[in-house]
Amino acid sequence: MGISEDLPQKAEKLRALHRRDRPLVLVNAWDAATARIFEKAGSAAIATTSAGIAFASGYPDGQKISRERMLEAVARICGAVSVPVTADVEAGYGDTPGEIHRTAVGVLEAGAVGLNLEDGTGRSEAPLADPALQGEKIRAVVAAGRSHGVPIVLNARTDVYLARVGPETGRLAETIRRGRAYRDAGADCVFIPGVTDPAIRIASRRGLIVPSRSSRVRRRARFIL
Length: 225
What we know:
Elements lengths: L6 H10 L10 E3 L2 H9 L5 E3 L1 H7 L10 H14 L4 E4 L8 H14 L3 E5 L12 H17 L5 E5 L13 H15 L3 E3 L6 H10 L1 E3 L6 E3 L1 E3 L1
Parallel strand pairs: 1-2, 2-3, 3-4, 4-5, 5-6, 6-9
Antiparallel strand pairs: 7-8
Helix pairs in contact: 2-4, 4-5, 5-6, 6-7, 7-8
């Protein structure tokens, strides 16, 4: 399957929609019909919902659906609308950077220009992926986009709060540690679901504004809740 020639422009459009002064609202579609409805209602971009697609396909949430089935659904959504689409591909359907690279290429072939990648594992003994390995996966996504000429908008999700990992007093520090690592690996956005305390939201945003390791310019990850 080839990659559409208009994807670089769509990727830049999606990236430009992320502005500090005006939060981007992304409505989650699970099929072509919902995507068309959201576009007609005025959505400038559309996000897919992995849970919604899984449920509509007869699977439970939590990466139980296959990569192929998920990407088929993403392709149908992308084919139904003209606005940029960002795809929720859960934990990437693989445990190695090579497998995540394959998923990222599949996302582009499906017609999406953004990708949501989470660090939750679904395993009680180790609920979160190793940060170093997750960073390698993020770099694999960035490399996949670069090799195909499409600057994928990568949304890195960390499930520290959603999965209630570790003592509550240590979750903010762990969230910031992971968010910084993912940002430095190339993520455009950091997604922290499960946070309900406004003070933690503010502290998380501030914690992700630090000098980049590659320059002296202060680099900020776009922040999503």
